[in-house]
Amino acid sequence: MEVKSNNITVERTKRSKIDQVDFDNLSFGSVFADHMLVCDYKNGEWGAPSVVPYQPIELEPSAKIFHYGQSIFEGMKAYKDDQGGVWLFRPEENQKRLNISAKRLAMPELPKEIFMEGLATLLQVDQEWIPQTKGSSLYIRPFMFASGNGFHASPADAYKFIIACAPSGPYFSGKVKVLIEERYSRAANGGVGFAKAGGNYAAQFYPTQLAVQKGYNQVIWTDDNTHEYIEEAGAMNIFVRINDTLITAPTNDRILDGITRKSILDIAADEGIETEVRKITVAEVINAAKDGSLKEMFGAGTAAVVSPISAFGYKEVDYNLPELDQSYAALLKKRITDIQYNRGDDKFGWRYRV
Ligand code: PLP
Ligand code: COI
């Protein structure tokens, strides 16, 4: 056992699995790095974090996570540049958002040092797991859940914070086709849609399965009240380009405040692209698709990066988007990934060296 200068203990695995991984053919989030960071909350305080071999977690059947769903997570990536340097993208934003989610789910907030130093220590230990192949990165999954026991429907008295990592390739393997939802809702006003709560994803699996059966990859959620406004997709925020204007919905109680989304808005403005953050009606998008002014739609998120949408469905009709030689999606994807992989200028100061 080693003790790092920040007092984080490290127990290294005796059998690394790294030789079993094909780094040239990585799927998304399906093989896991050798180690994980673990930190426990009990008796009203967080204990000392430690890095241990990636392993199963022991919980009692009465652990409240199983019954009342107190579970939140974050999604981040570590990028390796051509010289082997390791970078994160705006990690403090993830740290802040984890605590926004924690508060809404009546879970304890995690001190910033545990998140930041725990993450840096874990990445030092598992740095070999960060792929250098183009388009790949180490997907990082910080998460927290109720490990305390009891059937009483109230917040648990113990929690676990873990960071596990998965060397990953792109989230989508091909063109992305989405279905604009007209019946189901992912989130409601006053609910937990803005939090990165596990239950938000569970809530969308069934409607998404129905959409997948019809040939779509993701659902674009509309507002729960009228289903007339475009909100976000299952794993990414949505941008629409009408003529030369790039539009995205304002965040609200129901929409995750995506870090990629806000970065894209800043980069687009920096490129001189006209941007609008405003409500977008489904009718407006359909009309624009019909009259040809709808030039692009794309999703933005950590896993999805910038994912162009090739077609969308609504009320049993499919609308195809044109293939552009010079799309905003391609330009913005290049700008953001150049920052993430340390290939280009970081004028916003978003890159974070590990
Ligand atoms: N919306 C949802 C529902 C998501 O799961 C994600 C992914 O994290 C996003 C949006 C994009 O957020 P970010 O750019 O912070 O990854
Ligand atoms: C991410 O982009 O990090 C997410 O959390 C989306 C997830 C559903 C894969």
From TrEMBL:
GO MF, one term, reads: L-valine-2-oxoglutarate transaminase activity
**N6-(pyridoxal phosphate)lysine-modified residues are where?**
196
- Source domain of life is Bacteria
**Enzyme nomenclature, EC number:** 2.6.1.42
Identify the pathway: Amino-acid biosynthesis; L-valine biosynthesis; L-valine from pyruvate: step 4/4; Amino-acid biosynthesis; L-isoleucine biosynthesis; L-isoleucine from 2-oxobutanoate: step 4/4; Amino-acid biosynthesis; L-leucine biosynthesis; L-leucine from 3-methyl-2-oxobutanoate: step 4/4
The record's Pfam families line, in alphabetical order, gives: Aminotran_4
Q: PROSITE patterns per the record? A: AA_TRANSFER_CLASS_4
Cofactor(s) the record lists: pyridoxal 5'-phosphate
Tell me the InterPro entries matching this sequence: Aminotrans_IV, Aminotrans_IV_CS, Aminotransferase-like, B_amino_transII, BCAT-like_C, BCAT-like_N, BCAT_family
Q: What is this protein called?
A: Branched-chain-amino-acid aminotransferase
Species: Flagellimonas lutaonensis
